Amino acid sequence: MGIEIENHSGDDSSEASSTYVFDIESEMANGHTCAGIVRVLAEVMDEHPNEMRPLHAVVNCDAIDALFRTRRYGEARDNVSMTFHYDVYEVTVDANGKVVVKE
User: Fold this and answer.
1) What is the pLDDT of residues 88-100, one digit of tens each?
2) Which pTM value belongs to this model?
């Protein structure tokens, strides 16, 4: 899993934010999109997944896995993305396996 970190800050240094970009394409291909999202959030939050608030308390994981499940012949779905909030983070997932987490 790759990570790119971009730091953004406005005129006020207290408004600094970070953006993390991950690739979970392999998890998506295996039908485990939510497992990939949990791994990403654990990395960003520097916590063990078992110690975090369960993702299913925030979103419907079965629906997310179904939304990003590959088509019948293994092709990724086109133009599918979703955004949700988890704690102080905005999480965006797209069909290419890219997960963007913004603080």
Assistant:
1) 999 999 998 999 9
2) 0.83
